[in-house]
Amino acid sequence: MTNDLRPRIRALLHATSALLLGMSVRAESAPQPNIVFLFSDDHAPHAIGAYEGWLAGVDPTPAIDDLAADGMLFRNSFCTNSICGPSRAVIITGKHSHKNGFMNNGNNFDGSQQTFPKLLQKAGYETAVLGKWHLKSDPQGFDLWKILPGQGLYYNPDLKTPEGKITIEGHCTDIVTDIAVDWLKSGRDKNKPFLLMCQHKAPHRNWMPAARHLSLYADMEMPEPPTLFDQWEDNASPAHWQELEIDGHMHLNLDLFYKLRPEDDYSSVKSDRSAWVNLKRMTEGQKKAWYAHYEPLDRDLEKRQLSGKELVRWKYQRYVKNYLRCVRGVDESVARVRQTLKELGLEKNTIVVYSSDQGFYIGDHGWYDKRWMYEESFQMPLIISWPGVTKPGSTSDLMVQNIDYAETFLEAAGAPIPSDMQGMSLVPLLRGESPDYWRKALYYHYYEYPSVHMVPRQNGIRTERYKLINFYEFGEEELYDLENDPDELTNLASNPEYAGKLAELRGRLQGLVEKYEDDTVTDKKPEAWIQEMRTQQYRVEDKL
Ligand code: SGN
Ligand code: CA
């Protein structure tokens, strides 16, 4: 089958299954399912117990694991562009970044375009989005929206609403959950099916947990990732010029709160200062709980005067604990929303999805943040429970992407799927099928460079076994055999034994560029430009 024919056949298949679903809905007069989309920010699959990664032993997510036990867990779930706003734009449009126009966080989403929430409204749904939005322009296609401006704050955040700004005291994860629960109980139109997008800031940087979670893991030594001290020996040059190292770039004060006081002045520090800004907004009670936890630990670190690898290990411990404490807040939110659905008798006809905008480095490769096409940040968690459709405790190994969500929700609602969407409905997978037509390769394209963390533009292809990353502005490539080398430590791009594989993947990558009509791959930058970027490197000096 030629590439040209595939989308048309797929559209036909979609149309047929939508029709069949429509017919069966009518035949059984089953109501359209409600959709609860529980979403977080930067929650890597390996920080979810059910994904059985190297952090699973600390039992980070009992409630999300329960959701997996009741539904289907996607083991090979990925994003198309590992960064916040772009991932969200892909989700609501079902189109790659170059098609929906939101390629990096600095963009302004064109809200007038087609999105799945608008299409669900047309299909009779009431729609709501709460929490992190991060698309700059105001949400369209939602009957209710209360969103965090920009990144939002952890403590006592402002929320933007159509009626103006409001400020609510408390921890952001709890506040967003409270609004969601209230809306489910008494805010919505009970005669309509609904879409609820409950989108948390946590566990995004600067990882500020709720007071009740500060003591979680306090006496534990957390496991370290196998690649904590990776020196990127085999990677192409961009991995040596990034700015996301726990060692060199994670700020002891601003990221890890070591002796961070609101009255200090960090205004001239070239680093993100949101924790400092947020501390200034805390109530006296919140500050008391905060410092009761951190002050004794800070005094202890000061005494120990660590340096080198030992200081990296200390930073990693504080980072992973705070990150997982924020995750625990999200996990409790999942439990509360599901409990509310039960109390309201809605659980049987409600699809519950848990996902996050991309993966994250939790010390993997020595890093935090995301953006790269390496597995830890390319992956997205995806767990879906649809009572009566998903088999409890089931898993799917087929490769899925955030580009698939829009079509999935539309098909579930019995609504037509527009032919210009670029994903594939997951509904057959949810029913336990493994369709022959399923994709054999994924396309990735990240754009935001130069920018915070200095991860260069890259596109690439991932098959079930191999991955080719093209840092096209640098004229460098990386090729990995994921079966033999899951940590992506051995770059095979210049290994003569893999010349054939390299050529094959280059051809298939070009095929995906054409299939998705991506005309945004640019020419290689001149060496002088690359040199200039390299010299702009920024590092933090840890002062104990
Ligand atoms: C902020 C973060 C960065 C992060 C970007 C994008 N710093 O700038 O670490 O990479 O957002 O994140 S912070 O201290 O202000 O949090 S994204 O998830 O929104 O794409
Ligand atoms: Ca994110």
Give a short overview.
By secondary structure, this protein is α/β, with parallel strands linked by helices. Helix content is about 35%, strand content about 15%.
What tags apply to this protein structure?
544 residues, alpha/beta, eight-stranded mixed beta sheet, four-stranded antiparallel beta sheet, 15 helices, 14% strand, globular, disordered N terminus, binds 2-deoxy-6-O-sulfo-2-(sulfoamino)-alpha-D-glucopyranose, binds calcium ion
Descriptive report:
The chain is α/β, with parallel strands linked by helices and 544 residues long. The chain is 33% helix and 14% strand. The chain is built from 15 helices and 16 strands. The chain has helices spanning 5-28, 62-70, 84-93, 97-100, 116-122, 172-187, 238-241, 274-279, 284-304, 308-343, 375-378, 405-412, 427-430, 499-515, 527-535, and strands at 34-40, 72-74, 77-78, 126-132, 144-148, 158-161, 164-167, 194-199, 350-356, 382-385, 394-396, 400-401, 441-446, 458-463, 466-471, 476-481. A hairpin with a 4-residue loop joins strand 15 (466-471) and strand 16. The longest helix is centred in the middle third of the chain and has 36 residues, at 308-343. The chain is globular, with a radius of gyration of 23 Å. Mean pLDDT is 94; it is low at 1-28. Bound molecules: 2-deoxy-6-O-sulfo-2-(sulfoamino)-alpha-D-glucopyranose and calcium ion. Residues 41-42, 84, 204, 357-358 line the site of calcium ion (CA).
